[in-house]
Here is the input.
Amino acid sequence: MIVDCATTVGRIAEAAGGRITSGDPATEIGTITTDSREIGAKGLFIPLVGEKFDGHDFIRPLSESRSIRSYLTMRPGFTDTAARLGVAEILCEDTLRALGSIAGRHRDETDPTVIGITGTNGKTTTKELIYAILGSRWSCLKNEKNYNNEIGVPMTLLRLSAGHSMAVIEMGMNHPGELDRLSKIAKPDLALITNVGEGHLEFLGSVENVASAKSEIMHGMRPGSTLLVNRDMDCLDIVMEQARKSDLVVKGFGLSERADIRPESYRLYRDSLSVMFRGTEIAVPLYGIHNVYNVMAAVAVAAEFGMEPGAIAAALSGFVNVDGRSQIMDRGFIIIDDSYNANPLSVRYALRSTGEIFPDRRKIAVLSDMKELGEAAPRCHADCGRAVHENKFDMLLVWGDMAEYYADGARRAGFDGDRIRRFETKDEMSRYLHTVADENDVILIKGSRSMRMEDVVRALAGREE
Here is the structure.
């Protein structure tokens, strides 16, 4: 990732809490990057350390090629090279934390209104919805794609300019403490929690711990700021307690009577949904019950900024979702491409949506493993197998290490075992689908990112990359 900037080595060192060990503090910096392959003019290189790489390995080659003007480092041994080549060196304790500090300083200097978004599901779609609405009236910045981690969020904030009045920032996490750091960098003026569910249990242990970790988004907020929460989600009490401690104003969105922001009614269609809000129909080309929640979350944000339902409806009428998130494909039979990712809550939403929208058609669930569930994985997969039966599916096709648990959960709920098929490979699954799919079928395809279930979508749809 690379971003443009206009600063100096001295200002970078101050923001990073670092010390200039070689070079002139007045040296101009024009770009900041963490990727040695993307170096811009007057570049500052921030080397990060990952499981399989260490950016410090590129400091000498980049310096020797005169590709950069400055770099951060948290390791000694490069100063002589920097002095010999006229490259400015900034020594800091931790380059990742320094990146966050630099971004946090830039956020403060540009001072936009920041909307922070987190949750187990729906973060990216909700971000895109909010951006579409607010961007119709104000100059907004958003994360590109799903750059929502401790690298992506700071790099996004560094793209802020004086012309941006708002920033819509998605924040992801899979370990405790990550949202605490992101929130203290982004300092949300308004935060939104889309939901709490069984995500990243391998690292977090329980849904209660997920709720506590998601609540960390409040840690960088000023007292009196507003938190929007899904009133229908699990572990709401944990989130509300943290909001009380943080002295925040809490408003709820959702579908239940408990929600402050809720639709008078909603309808689901095969390629769209509509909600009736304050007497205005808001129609959005999105699929599924989960997206009703996402739309209401976005409506709640827009309402906080005084936008009327008619303006919200106009802004969302041409909305285009991110690929791989509940895309509908018609090949005679219907393919619901929900292959982007999966966790228990999103699978249950997907099954429920398919059951509600296509009650009279034969429905085939094509499922693979949900990752990062730890010891809860067997139970979670069995629960989703049970949901296949509860939502009146006609066939269940499964592949992966957890396939037996999907199948067992479905059978125990009363699903006919003759209508369950387990496969050793995705190719076998795809070939079987070709033999059984007919024009009356609706085929839901879902699995975690690492399972690459889009391969099955391509095979079934006859699509080439």
User: Anything to note?
Assistant: The first strand starts at residue 2 and ends at 8.
